[in-house]
Design brief:
Blueprint (H helix, E strand, L loop, with lengths): L2 H4 L1 E11 L4 E6 L12 E4 L2 E9 L2 E4 L5 H5 L5 E5 L16 E4 L4 E11 L2 E7 L4 E5 L5 E3 L4 E3 L8 H12 L3 H4 L6
Parallel strand pairs: 7-12
Antiparallel strand pairs: 1-2, 1-6, 2-5, 3-4, 3-6, 4-5, 7-8, 8-9, 9-10, 11-12
Length: about 180
C-alpha cells in the first residue's frame, strides 16, 4: 500500500445507539453503503476497532456489546484507511481540489466536509477564510477536479458585503433620508 492508501480518512460520525447489544447508527458523509463491511478496521475517535456487523446504517464494533458503551461513541468521527475502500467518486478524493465558479473564477480549495444533520457541507478554503458550502446539486455544478460551483449571491463575497455595510455606515441621516440640507 502507498502512503496515500495508509492515511485515515473520515467517513462520517457515529450516531445514537441502536438496540441494546452495542450497535450504533452511523451518519456517513458519502451514502455509498459498500464502504462499511464486516471485518473492516475503522478508527472511532482515536481508537481502532473492527466492524463485526453492518445492517443498513447500524454497525456493531468488536468489544462493544452494551448500549451504554455504544452511547459513549456518539458524535465520534468514524475513519477508515483510504486503501481499504475501492476506487470511486468519494468525497475524500476531492479534499485539496481546486474550486471555481461556473465562469472559471478561482474560489479556493476543498479543505474537507462536514455534516450538519442531513446537510453535507464542503469546507472551501479561500484566501481569507473558510466558507461552508451546501454540497447539493443546485450549487455543485460539476465534481472535479476542479469542483465547479454555482454559488448563490453572497456566499463567497461576504467581505465585499461587510465593506459595503461599513461604507454605508459613514453616510449621514440626511443622506439616507434623501435630504441634502446639512
Amino acid at each position: 500500500m502507498s502512503n496515500a492508501d495508509e492515511r485515515w480518512v473520515r467517513l462520517g460520525v457515529v450516531g445514537r445507539p441502536h438496540g441494546v447489544k452495542g450497535a450504533v447508527k452511523v451518519n456517513l458523509d458519502h451514502k455509498d453503503g459498500r464502504t462499511l463491511r464486516a471485518g473492516l478496521r475503522v478508527m472511532v475517535g482515536d481508537v481502532v476497532r473492527g466492524i463485526v456487523t453492518v445492517s443498513g446504517d447500524a454497525v456493531s464494533f468488536e468489544g462493544i456489546t452494551d448500549r451504554d458503551v455504544a452511547a459513549s461513541l456518539t458524535h465520534k468521527e468514524l475513519s477508515v484507511r483510504r486503501g481499504d475502500f475501492g476506487a470511486g467518486d468519494y468525497l475524500v478524493d476531492l479534499v485539496g481540489a481546486n474550486v471555481t465558479d461556473v465562469a472559471g473564477t478561482p474560489l479556493g480549495t476543498i479543505k474537507g466536509f462536514l455534516t450538519s444533520g442531513p446537510q453535507l457541507l464542503a469546507e472551501v478554503q479561500t484566501a481569507a477564510d473558510v466558507v461552508l458550502v451546501p454540497f447539493v446539486a443546485p450549487i455543485v455544478a460539476r465534481l472535479g477536479p476542479p469542483v465547479v460551483l454555482a454559488p448563490p449571491p453572497g456566499l463567497f463575497d461576504d467581505d465585499a458585503l461587510v465593506a459595503g455595510d461599513a461604507a454605508s455606515a459613514d453616510t449621514t441621516d440626511a443622506e439616507v433620508d434623501g435630504d441634502d440640507r446639512a
